[in-house]
Design a protein that fits this description.
CATH topology of the largest domain: TIM Barrel
Radius of gyration: 28 Å
Largest sheet: 8 strands, mixed, barrel
Number of domains: 2
Helix content: 40-55%
CATH class of the largest domain: Alpha Beta
Strand order of the largest sheet: 8-9-11-12-13-14-15-16
Structural class: alpha/beta
Length: 473
């Protein structure tokens, strides 16, 4: 609660005294600064303490640190053992962390399993990192829930004043960014907001702004990679892949801009543009060539996704039986009920559903049991190891055998060598894709395959790396 420049004409000591009076007054009126579960302060208390430190150091901005942490995988434990057990864990966390922090530090519970810290004498990045590692160790001992114990971890994000911001909102935002990066590092990670992170965030902001404009201008391009019969090279379909080149930033990887679109909330707009472009291209293909298209995890949580897909197919007058929708196991785990409804709606009109990256999820076999799929795609990591790792060969053999028993088609992705293709034929795999058969290419290049097939004697559409005009050339 900053009063500098407010026109109140208060001296520094008077401003500090006023902040203390405000805290006492709010505590007396309904304890609005206290978390009822842990007895700690709440987010308002964290803001007041941070603002007070900023006011104290206005003339000489000596650094200090604020931090945010949350308990990894707390919700499953809360759901399994009940809210009372969850509250007990939160209370124990509050006691442990409070005991481990410096005497002048303040610990608050922000919401759910998220806590905040104000650290007046933690001056440097290395100090924050050292403290984070210490607090991480506090979680190693099991938490006592009476007749049972549970083990938990936590992820931590820190930032320093004044480098990361000049007010509470800016500092808290940078803390959340650091926490987000920590989570990406896995459970029990620590991240301090650094100059490198600041540069990455500036770059991310530039990309996000450019991506918004590109989507509005429909500048995201659809490229197509052939899916073939690995025995003959005959093309059976194409997978649509998003490609984007910005005039200033250059070519941006879909591994960068797709997650960014999901996080920023405009993946739906991007998908619609790409899907309509892909259908427009596929309308020029032979009727027996299918179009494979990916849906994001965000869209599998939106109950309107199935209807949206149907509406676009109807608008473009495109046969849904020529569409294959690819989804991942992680995509359906966030909201399985909604995902199942979407899958069933699309399958009801003839769309085939494909489980992508099969073999990498923790419960892929369970997903095959719980959901209705038409195909699975063997993850490229197993294909890359064929001929070098007998274990991968055994896994591919097992997947092919299982899918045959379940009457599921199989596509092997990431085929890059003739040896891999030959091994897959030997193992009984029929369909595949990868650089050996063709790289992703734009709409015009894709249409060139069909013109080439029409000019050949047999008229069979094939894609081999030795064929003239192949996109792998």
């Amino acid at each position: 609660m900053t009063y500098a420049g407010s026109g109140l004409g208060l001296l520094p000591d008077e401003r500090i005294d006023l902040s203390e009076r405000i805290i006492r007054n709010e505590e007396e009126n309904g304890k609005s600064l206290t978390d009822p579960v842990t007895g700690l302060g709440n987010l308002r208390r964290m803001k007041i303490k941070t603002d007070k430190l900023i006011e104290e150091r206005a003339d000489d901005p000596a650094p200090f640190t604020i931090g945010v942490f949350d308990i990894d995988r707390f919700r499953p434990v809360n759901d399994l053992f009940g809210r009372k057990a969850g509250d007990e864990i939160l209370s124990q966390v509050a006691l442990r962390i409070s005991a481990a922090l410096p005497e002048d530090a303040a610990l608050v519970r922000i919401a759910g399993d998220t806590f905040g810290m104000v650290l007046p004498t933690c001056f440097f990045e290395k100090d924050a990192e050292r403290l984070g590692k210490l607090l991480k160790e506090v979680f190693t001992a099991p938490f006592d829930l009476g007749e049972r114990t549970v083990r938990m971890t936590a992820s931590f994000g820190f930032c320093q004043y004044p480098f990361a911001g000049s007010n509470f909102d800016e500092l808290y935002d940078k803390c959340e960014s650091a926490l987000y990066q920590a989570r990406k590092g896995g459970p029990g990670s620590v991240q301090v907001y650094t100059h490198r992170m600041a540069e990455e965030m500036r770059k991310r902001t530039r990309i996000e702004q450019a991506l918004r404009k590109a989507i509005a201008a429909e500048e995201i391009d659809a490229h197509f990679q052939p899916i073939v019969d690995v025995r003959s090279g005959a093309i059976k379909g194409f997978e649509c892949l998003a490609r984007w080149t910005d005039p200033e930033l250059g070519s941006i990887s879909p591994a960068v801009f797709i997650p960014l679109a999901e996080q920023a909330g405009f993946i739906d707009s991007l998908t619609k543009i790409l899907f309509l472009k892909a259908i427009e291209t596929a309308k020029s293909w032979p009727k027996d060539v299918f179009l494979s298209f990916n849906l994001s995890s965000v869209q599998l949580m939106d109950p309107t996704t199935g209807l949206s897909v149907m509406a676009m197919l109807s608008k473009m007058d495109f046969d849904p039986r020529r569409i294959e929708i690819e989804i991942t196991e992680t995509g359906i785990m966030s909201d399985p009920e909604t995902a199942e409804r979407i899958i069933n709606e699309m399958r009801a009109i003839g769309i085939r559903i494909l489980l992508d990256d099969f073999g990498t999820g923790q419960s892929s076999l369970g997903r095959l049991r719980d959901f209705s799929f038409d195909k699975v795609k063997i993850d490229r990591s197993f294909i890359a190891a064929l001929g070098e790792d007998t274990q991968s060969e055994h896994i591919v053999t097992a997947i092919l055998s299982m899918c045959k028993a379940l009457e599921l088609s199989v596509i092997a992705e990431g085929i890059e060598t003739a040896e891999q293709a030959e091994k897959l034929v030997e193992l009984g795999c029929i369909a595949g894709q990868g650089y050996f058969f063709g790289r992703p290419a734009d709409a015009q290049t894709t249409l060139g395959y069909f013109r080439q097939a029409e000019a050949s004697e047999g008229g069979e559409l094939t894609c081999r790396t030795t064929a003239p005009g192949c996109c792998a050339d």
